[in-house]
Amino acid sequence: MSRRKRTAKSSGVAAMVFLLCLACxxxxxxxxxxxxxxxxxxxxxxxxSPPRSGAESGAWKVAQPRDDVPRGKxxxxxxxxxxxxxxxxxxxxxxxxxxxxxxxxxxxAAITIARAPLFPTLTGSVExxxxxxxxxxxxxxGRSPGPRADYVLPLDLFYEADLWGRIRRTVEASTASxxxxxxxxxxxxxxxxxxxxxxxxxxxxxxxxxxLLEMTVEAFERALELATNRYNQGxxxxxxxxxxxxxxxxxRSQVIDISLRRAQVEHAIATLIGKSPAQFSLPPSPMTxxxxxxxxGLPSELLERRPDIAAAERRVAAANAQLGIAEAAFFPTLTLxxxxxxxxxxLANLFSWPSHLWSIGGALVxxxxxxxxxxxxxxxxxxxYDATVAAYRQSVLVAFQGVENNLAALRILxxxxxxxxxxxxxxxxxxxxxxxxxxxxxxxxLEVITAQNxxxxxxxxxxxxxxxxxxAAVSLIRALGGGWNEHGEVQSxxx
Length: 495
What we know:
The protein has ten helices and five strands. By secondary structure, the chain is α+β, with helices and mostly antiparallel strands. The protein has a single domain, classed as Up-down Bundle (Outer membrane efflux proteins (OEP)), CATH 1.20.1600.
């Protein structure tokens, strides 16, 4: 090898080494703002929660996202074996949960896609070419135009130096998006279990209301028999009989209407657990159990427990990374390329040393004129970031609203239920008195009808209040983000 060739080769290698050192030096740089979780309005206490003890009221701490902690089987706090059995089927058969799980796997794979450009790309190929040059080409007069073969085995190495952190910011954004998708999955799981519990207690409330109406039908049948006997004895008019029959048929109609509503709720439960409504049924079982106490905890814990809040916060982090990506577009890009391999016109000596080839080089490219495109992209990304911050803060506000609403509902509905129990007792005494007065011929059947309607309305209201209290308990658990404690165990009043 001549001295000139050795010098050229050494210069090329030295230049490549310099570019590699420059890339490694600048790779630690990363433009764009460092992410900080945006502040959110968090009250020191829930307004609607019962007063806390002195030790508990001082247990304030800064919230740290823990949306990945399992919520546990929070529905077991209601101590209903049928509900527990239904809840177990969601994890196995729910298609909504399957969709969310697939979306999470796709988001997780996107991290690997985003991380791949951090490493060099190596491609290899096998090339076999045949050609024949024209004898009439410039400078080709008098030369043989015979066919020529060319065998090439090249390997190409390409690497874009992440000088300004664009690729790392992309990985950061993909990672935050995957974490948001994981929180979305947990939110779907929590919502499905809560929706099933809500539908279940609605169904049991309808069962209780249907049993009440069936008992009312039996009482109205006895009242009709009494009115008919009195009419046959000539001590009552036919109006009493017709009024009693109207009451009876109206109650029977209401039983049928309850059956329709129950069937619709039962079909909704079947869909939630991934079964065909035609192949699913639940035997009637009127609800009688009172809702269990639900500890609300500290408001700061809500930011840790709500998966939708965690998802919103992770999307803020992803949007912050996009700010860095947009800012990196204003700086030049450094690409390094290297090729090496074998080439020969004769397959027999393709693998000999003289057949080897190589090239190495780099390029530093800066976009000189884009008519404001990069600036507009930066403004767009900044607007998206501001929107995600607002969405995060709004999700926090909505979460606290949901907790306060359901705390208020449980407290007020409990007071209303106690008052309604007194109304039921009074209506039952009124009905018994009216029936005795009618048997004694002291009053007309109109007084009995009025007492019957009052008693039925009071008892149906009591059943409705119990159903609303149970669904408010479920809604409170969902608003709190599940029923786990710091050890991932089910949080209940029995522990």
